[in-house]
Amino acid sequence: MDIILLERIEKLGSIGDVVSVKDGYARNFLLPGKKALRANAANKKVFEANRAKIEADNADRRKAAEAQTGDVDGKTVVLIRAASNSGQLYGSVSVRDIVDALNEDGAKVTKAMIVLERPIKTIGIYDVKVSLHPEVSVTVKVNVARSPDEANLQAEGVDVMAAMFEEANVPSGFTEAYDPNAEPGATAEVSDDETPAEGDTEA
Questions:
Q1: Quick check: 44 pLDDT over 50?
Q2: 140 with 75: CB under 8 angstroms?
Q3: How far is 97 from 90, CA to CA, in rounded Å?
Q4: pLDDT at 191
Q5: Residue 62, class by beta-carbon neighbours within 10 Å (0-12 exposed, 13-18 middle, 19+ buried)?
Q6: Per-residue b or e along 111-128, where b marks 16 or more CB atoms closer than 10 Å to that residue's CB
Q7: Do residues 5 and 12 make contact, with C-beta atoms less than 8 angstroms apart?
Q8: pLDDT by residue (tens digit) across 147-198?
Q9: 80 φ, ψ (degrees, to nearest 5)
Q10: What's the rounded Cα separation, in Å, for the pair 136 and 65?
């Protein structure tokens, strides 16, 4: 389907561009979201007649978004979640979880602004893009951990997953002293210096 963009769409184009997209993408997202018009003769005339206002409104929204960046850009939110010993979450972190955490920290964002390329399913720190406007994006960090202490370690740069792996491979219990000079299967022996000489007895 050919459409006229009413705002900048990443990887598609800018305001006024006529582009071709899949029908489902247009019907389910672009058209109902008022992000585009069908590219027919009547709509082209309507767009050109209103182009100046559309561009001015977009500029106002962009300025408002730019003013908002200070409240969002660079923020770090901590999400405490239950996870297995391998760091796998019991479930996943959703866009709603991130929105709620950011808004509790003073940001004003919506679910539509969060760009989560794939679900977060393990503990760790993730960079998440927040699109405040089609032309204004910032990045926040999402620190997913099993406890506040673990979140602090991750914030300090500790790779908690690697540390857990190392701990899991440390042998536990009694470890016998190793003598590199001993014969295979031999037990540790007392050295000659420590063995009493023959006939060396107390009077």
A1: yes
A2: yes
A3: 14
A4: 46
A5: middle
A6: eebbebeeebbbbebbeb
A7: yes
A8: 999 999 999 998 887 776 665 554 545 444 555 555 555 544 544 555 455 5
A9: -90, 125
A10: 7
pTM: 0.72
Count of residues making up the chain: 203
DSSP states of the chain: -EEEESS-BTTTB-TT-EEE--HHHIIIIITTTTSEEE-SHHHHHHHHHHHHHHHHHHHHHHHHHHHHHHHHTT-EEEEE--B-TTSEEEEEE-HHHHHHHHHHTT----GGGEE-SS-EEESEEEEEEEEEETTEEEEEEEEEESSHHHHHHHHTT--HHHHHHHHHTS--S------TTSPTTPPP---GGGSPPTT----
Residue with tokens 């491979």: 169
Average pLDDT, the chain: 85
Query: Which of 44, 48, 29, 35 lies closest to 8, judged by CA?
Result: 35
